[in-house]
Amino acid sequence: MEWMGLNELREKYLTFFESKNHTRMASANLIPQGDNSLLLINSGMAPLKKFFLGTETPPNKRVTTCQKCIRTPDIERVGKTARHGTYFEMLGNFSFGDYFKTEAIQWAWEFLTGVLEIPAEKLWVTVFESDDEAEEIWVNKIGVPKDRVVRLGKADNFWEHGSGPCGPCSEIHFDRGESYGPFESFEQAGDCDRIIEIWNLVFSQFDSDGKGNYAEMAHKNIDTGMGLERLACVMQGVDNLFEVDTVQNIMKHISSIAGVSYKENEKTDVSLRVITDHIRSTVMMVGDGVTASNTGRGYVLRRLLRRAARHGRLLGINKPFLFEVADTVIDENKCAYPELEEKRGYIKKLILTEEESFAKTIDTGMDLLNGMLSRIEKGGVLSGDDAFKLSDTYGFPIDLTIEIAEEKGVSVDTEKFAELAANAKAIARADRLAKGGSSWDEDALSGITLPKTKFTGYTSLSEASTVLGVFKDGGEVSELNEGDDGVIILDTTPFYAESGGQVGDKGTITIGESRFAVSDTKKTANGQYLHFGTVEMGGIGKGDTVSADVDKTLRYATMRNHTAAHLLQAALRKVLGDHVHQAGSYVDSEHCRFDFSHFEAVTAEQLAEVESIVNTNIFDAIPVTMTEMPIEEARKLGAMALFGEKYGNVVRVVEAKGVSIEFCGGTHIDNTSRLGLFHIVSENSVAAGVRRIEAVTGSGVLSLLGNYKAVTDTAAHMLKVAKPDELSTKIKAMQSEIKQLEKENSDLNAKLAASQTGDIMSDAEQVGGVRVAHAVLKGVPADSLRSMGDDIKSGNDDAVCLIASVNDDSASILCVCGKAAVAAGANAGKIVREVSALTGGKGGGRPDSAMAGVGDVSKLESALNSCADIVKGFVG
User: Fold this and answer.
1) Residue 839: its pLDDT value, please?
2) Tens of pLDDT along 797-838?
3) Tens of pLDDT along 670-729?
4) Which run of H or E residues covers position 268?
5) Maximum CA pair distance of the chain?
6) I need a surface site. Which of 215, 523, 607, 848 has the fewest CB within 10 A?
7) Which one is predicted more confidently, 212 or 265?
8) Percentage of residues in the chain having pLDDT higher than 70
9) Contact predicate 866/836, CB 8 Å
10) Cα–Cα dist 804/789, whole Å
11) How far is CA 377 from the centre of its chain?
């Protein structure tokens, strides 16, 4: 049994099972594909569930994987113990109706004792209490002593999750030796650190109805799982995952930044473990297309990042640093996951952006939270209202509030917080519905059992079809009549269903004089195409033979915009860098909207270069090919895949030779020249690290030019110039004239103000050695108000003067204090704050000059009349 690195262990395992005729499958994306029951992949079996359930065919009846996994239920315990982590890799070998218990047990034992040379006497085996077959294999075929095979009950050795495939388990445990404690028998070992489980063999042989009834399955399966990090602990002779070679290298990078060492201080160790675990999870999630947000898996990512950033602060790191540590995570894992190297720039930039964003939040939030906690005794409760205020107003995460409060011995009223958060969410949802309305949801048809629709729209825009089903108001009917809104399902259709950012086709479905106008096309998860629309004439019923015709003009315009999106991405990567990846898109007949990963505004010069590159590609008349091929072949060609998108074993690849090659199921034109022209309309930010470009092609460019001409012609007429190209000269002249008039107006206001300053102080009231005066003026600009104040200050050392300027329904107050008045204790900032507060306003500033807003103008006069009493409080 020799020391072995984690990366070497992974490769040895996969190679071993390849020698047993298993197909090695790459780790699935952490974002579940076609499985809404999971937020993130959390086990080796999860991505293969479709094969176990028979909904998809595996590439081989024997499969082996090393699966990236994220589990966060115990996130609060990460760091506090050396056992818990959120990211891990699960080794697995699987049989889909092929081999069963004998082979699974034999190969597990061969790998552990033969390949890894783990001494057999260090291994224990458990089986389900009634699984005689498994025990017989272990004892009689493998040769494990009977006293080292332990029978355990259903809670320990039976895998079941609701209804469906289930079965007994057999676990292999490793004895780490006497240095980890005494040991008399396995049953007494409990949850000690000495005996650790390293491999679980699940024998799926029953079909459960979820009510305690188990039917023997005709085709039995094998699902095994072994934690890679836990196996590395055994092979490297270390106590926990944080001491495994690749993980320890990450921790050493963090330690060097913080200037601390592991195992010197328990508080420091907690923070080092938190950061090490969370940055591993973060890099893997971002690499698989998860972006930070306040919902779903995006919130999991943001929570991990922010928790890690906070523990960085506890170590004294007061700058962004996680993006630097990401380099080490990538370096330690890129041999198994080369996509991390490809996305290094993007991963680091997203992490840095989140760190910088959180830095703005955490200081304010920490100050407020510490202030709240300072008023609560140990054992007390932070109110749900305060916790919600921190979260809703200041963006301070509730999980951090709970964790920090717990460190101070204070609990949080999470029930009240949840109630307030739910109410806020309901209000926001109602507001969105009020603004956007609602539409009939095709989910009502998700349970239909009709055959899949055959799609012919890649090569045809017209098809003779049979109506398989007709639906109205969410329910199936025999026919739709004139005026009815509904859905038609056909056996064959040329209509493209909304997918991959491309809108569904519009057009008509006709039979004789009857006509159904298709306004949208969508697709169910089961493959039926839903043609939404209205019967404009006659009626259409189930079983009718109809003509399905796509609106050719709209489809071709949409195709131009979709191909433009591919050319646009290629140009953006060329100009901005390889960190650019598609983060979403929307293409219809009118425009192309493309969201992409980038962390700063694209300059006008860069946009011009991108637009020029796309148009050059159009003028070069590059052929565009659409080819179906095995996914591995497509990857070898360098085809770009969309983050988080689900792809089958065979994919459709769209290529503009030498410019762009992408996985894409959408529709495209066959030559770039058919785009005509490409023009970028706008570029802006839509989320942290995500930018959006909107563009038009072909007739859309002509339409835009027509609009521009109409605007310039109208402007030329209004400004009385003969030609639109004279507009800039005319506008410059008008700007110069306006500037001169503004200067003259300002000079007049200054003279007016100067003439009034003497009058204001003539009515001053003596208060404690200073003279206090106030006045209300109409329509005086802020600059003129300040000029008046400066004049009063310079000519009246003992003055405290408040001047209010009223403009319609708004007003502001200036307070100035001369040098002698300030020396006597007057403070303009504090005085104006108190006066404005009487009106519901706010403000403040320097001791000699300060401004404030007025809340209720009707209360202004009363507030100013109180200024003498307020000043008295400062000058005695």
Assistant:
1) 92
2) 999 999 998 887 889 999 999 999 999 999 999 999 999 999
3) 999 999 999 999 999 887 778 999 999 988 888 888 888 888 888 888 888 888 888 888
4) helix 266-287
5) 113
6) 215
7) 265
8) 93
9) no
10) 11
11) 38
Residue 429 is predicted with a pLDDT of: 55
Nearest to 156 by CA among 102, 118, 195: 195
The CA–CA distances, whole Å, from 354 to 91, 288, 304, 308 equal 32, 17, 11, 11
- Give which of 419, 398, 506, 492 is closest to 451, Cα–Cα: 492
DSSP single-letter state for residue 339: H
CA distance 34 to 63: 20
According to the model, what pLDDT value does residue 606 have? 96
339: which 2 tokens?
């996509």
Higher pLDDT: 151 or 370? It is 151
CB atoms within 10 A of CB 861: 12
Residue type for 647, please?
Y
Tokens at 751, concatenated: 């003279």
Q: Amino acid identity of 297? A: R
Whole-angstrom Cα distance, residue 83 to residue 73?
14
Q: Is the pLDDT of residue 317 over 70?
A: yes
Q: How would DSSP label each residue in 593-655?
A: EEEEE-SSPPPHHHHHHHHHHHHHHHHTT-BEEEEEEEHHHHHHTT-B--TT----SEEEEEE
Q: How far is CA 272 from CA 8, 259, 268, 541, in A?
A: 25, 11, 6, 67
Strands 23-25 and 62-70 turn out to be parallel
Beta strands in 491-591 (DSSP E): 492-493, 507-511, 514-523, 529-537, 539-541, 545-550, 582-587
In single-letter form, the type of residue at position 130 comes to S
Question: Using an 8 Å Cβ cutoff, are 543 and 632 in contact?
Answer: no
State the sign of the Cα–Cα–Cα–Cα dihedral 494, 497, 499, 501.
Answer: positive
Q: 869: which 2 tokens?
A: 């009493």
Written as six digits, the tokens of 421 are: 């958060």
* Contacts of range 761-766, beta carbons closer than 8 Å, 24 or more positions apart: 761/792, 761/796, 761/799, 761/801, 764/799, 764/801, 765/868
Average pLDDT over residues 68-88: 87
CB within 8 Å of 213: residues ≥ 6 apart? none
**CA gyration radius for the chain?**
36
Q: Which two tokens stand for residue 111?
A: 């790998």
Q: What is the pTM of this model?
A: 0.61
Mind listing the pLDDT tens digit for each residue in 452-483? 999 999 999 999 999 999 998 878 899 999 99
**What letter represents residue 852's amino acid?**
A
Strand pairing of 149-152 and 123-128?
parallel
Q: Over 60: is that where the pLDDT of 591 sits?
A: yes
- Mean per-residue pLDDT of the chain: 88
pLDDT band at 57; cut points 50, 70, 90: confident
422-445 tens-digit pLDDT: 887 676 555 544 433 333 444 445
Give the list of residues 6+ apart from residue 528 with CB closer than 8 angstroms, or none: 445, 448, 450, 451, 452, 453, 468, 469, 489
Backbone φ, ψ for residue 647 (5° rounding): -130, 140
Among 13-22, 375-384, 862-871, which is the least confidently predicted range?
375-384
The strand pairing partners of 806, in sequence order, are: 778, 811
Q: For residue 813, give Cα distances in angstroms to 616, 644, 833.
A: 59, 56, 10
411 Cβ neighbours under 8 A, 6+ residues apart? 380, 381, 382, 405
Write the CA distances from 447 to 225, 444, 698, integer angstroms: 34, 7, 41
C-alpha span between 502 and 654 (Å, rounded):
14
Bridge-based pairing state of the strands 650-656 and 660-663: antiparallel
Pairing assessment for the beta strands 454-455 and 492-493 based on DSSP bridges: parallel
DSSP 453: P
Structure tokens at 815: 């307070």
CB contact at 8 A, 125 and 149: yes
Hey, what are 459's tokens?
């090569």
Start-to-end Cα distance in the chain: 86
73: pLDDT confidence band, cut at 50, 70 and 90?
confident
